[in-house]
Amino acid sequence: MKKFLILAFIVLSNSAIGQISNINMNGAPARLTPYTGIEGSPYLFEDWSRANIGLTNAGLKENVAYKFNIYDNELEVINEAGNTIYLTKDFVEYVELERPSIILANAQQQGLLPRLLFKKGFDSVKGIEANDLVNVIAEGNKYTLIRKFYADLVTPPKNSYAPTAGRMFVFEETYYLIDRNDKVSSVKSKTNIILKALNPEDQEMAKQIIKDRKLDLGREDHLVIFFTDLNKG
Questions:
Q1: How far apart are alpha carbons 183 and 198 in whole angstroms?
Q2: 57-83 confidence digits (pLDDT tens)
Q3: Per-domain residue ranges for the chain?
């Protein structure tokens, strides 16, 4: 009888935790979006993938199915109840998005990171809102490098091959370098451009790191190595 009571308590406790998790993983039901007839995609990755999500009100949620709508900067997830919701970003501390394996397998670009870290709180950068999720490539006491993904909805000029001018999503990304004095520079992931954006007193060390490590700052993995070493110096 005692064993039965303990087992019943465990089952009820797990059920209660599941219900709490469903409540704490707050969000609005995913709505049907008027993207039909629009060329391209509003999503960072078209396929569903997995994410680890750190929530201030519910701790760490691992292996959550997600799609990231970069046009609306909304994270679509499937919660514990099996419902697709737009995650309420007020409670999001960070998100670690897994790149779909097919993208890594077919990538022509070298050095793609298998996981991308996203955070909020970069509204000191023009064009970024306080609740916008941006990709944090490096973060340290000297330099922080972030990347903002965009899917702009544009209407191309009408041409002779189309009876009407259709609309399409155009994918863009912008890198921002933030130094210890909160100075923000828009940069590209190119070695010479990033070197020029650094403070003069850090440039010699930066050149030495690139030389010693044989780095190409056009690669995501090399950017992580570079800024990790630079922030240590």
A1: 10
A2: 889 999 999 999 999 999 999 988 888
A3: 49-188
